[in-house]
Amino acid sequence: MGNFSFSSLGVLFLLLVLIPNACWCFKKPKDDTAERENRWLQTCEQLGQVLTTIALLIDGNLNWHGWSNRCWWLILASCFIFLYEWFWVRYFRSDRNLIDFYRPLVGVRVPGATFPILSFLCLALYGRALVLGFATFLLGVGHIGIHLSHEQELKTQLLNQVKD
Questions:
Q1: Which of 57, 104, 131, 141 has its CA 20 to 30 A from that of 46?
Q2: Number of folded domains that form the chain
Q3: Is residue 25 domain-resident?
Q4: What band does 1 get if pLDDT is binned at 50, 70 and 90?
């Protein structure tokens, strides 16, 4: 992170992730029964959240600097963040059951965890932001790992219900 300055583009991407998450706090799945989460994955997720947030806010390399071939990474990051927003619209328009939260989107499992990670990784490549890339990797290991675990718990519960 060579350019310590405010990143308006980083703030925009951060808000696009945080606003739907804040709304989710009031509209959680009706049947949410997640068991305890893996402590190691939780630690990776929480450390990744803090570092990713800081990097998005203060890495000036993430700002727009005119067109170059690196802008393709920004376009790809924007596509992933669009898919993330689509995930949330689909969830909020559903019955808001756990199955709705973990339903794949365009063939991607746990889209609510996967798309922001992919978006931040592309943003890191766009800005050549090594710290953001590392922070996003940590966040992804924890966040995607936790959601894959929850998805597996849900599948197990659904199979047990079918057997009964």
A1: 104
A2: 1
A3: no
A4: very low
* Nearest partner of 137 among 126, 153, 151, 122, judged by Cα: 122
d(CA 88, CA 96): 11
pTM: 0.92
Q: Is residue 34 assigned to a domain?
A: no
Burial letters for 15-29: b for 16+ Cβ neighbours within 10 Å, e otherwise? ebbeebeeebeeeeb
Q: Minimal CA–CA distance to 123: which of 107, 113, 137?
A: 137
Residue 31 is assigned to a structural domain of this protein: no
Q: Is the pLDDT of residue 48 over 90?
A: yes
pLDDT at 157: 84
Dihedral angle computed from the Cα positions of residues 149, 110, 123 and 81, in that order, rounded to the nearest 10 degrees: -150
Domain range enclosing 77 = 8-19+39-163
One-letter amino acid for residue 109 of the chain? R
How far, in Å, CA of 60 to CA of 5, rounded?
A: 5
Tokens coding 52:
């990713």
- What does the alpha-carbon distance between residue 136 and residue 88 come to, in Å, rounded to a whole number? 20
pLDDT digits (tens, 9 = 90+) for 88-132: 999 999 998 888 889 999 999 999 999 999 999 999 999 999 999
Any domain includes 2: no
- Gyration radius of the chain's alpha carbons: 17
Token pair of 69, please? 């071939």
